[in-house]
Design brief:
single chain, alpha/beta, 7-stranded mixed β-sheet, 6 helices, globular
Length: 182
Amino acid sequence: MANSTDKKSSSRVIMVTGGQRSGKSVFAENLALSLSERPVYIATARIFDEEMRRRVEIHRERRRNRWRDVEAPLYPAATELAYGEVVLIDCLTLWATNWFFESGEDSGAALREIKRQIDTLRTRPATFIIVTNEVGLGGVSPNAMQRKFADLQGTLNQYLATLADEVYLVISGIPVKIKPQS
């Protein structure tokens, strides 16, 4: 009889977290490439302005043709995967942002949908490297909407960290493994 640990055993989840421009994506990309010759890159970004377009281009240039790229701003769990693939989702924060606004700033609805998709991903026989941001490290915003989003992001990060087999915190380009502890 199958149980939740049977489902988890078919996947591996690695969480990579840190502040903005901490080096999270580069670390996660190098980790994925150390595990696979051609990993899957699931991009969750939506491009709204020229500055964001430049950020996305920098990521694309760094990956070149070594990756299978998938754009999935709302439904990363719908991506078709082969058995044993290595999948980098970059990033949970943009994915949460997309659902936050898609749900009319209903953080409860966004939380439920993303948790449902994370749970679906965990049933797939693959390695998932999920990049996220520690948005709450910068202090409490005076803006109510930003506080609401920071709470959503913090709750998602805690959920993912609980499920993850490994968690890395990247600070100034230096990855520190925080789960499991060495």
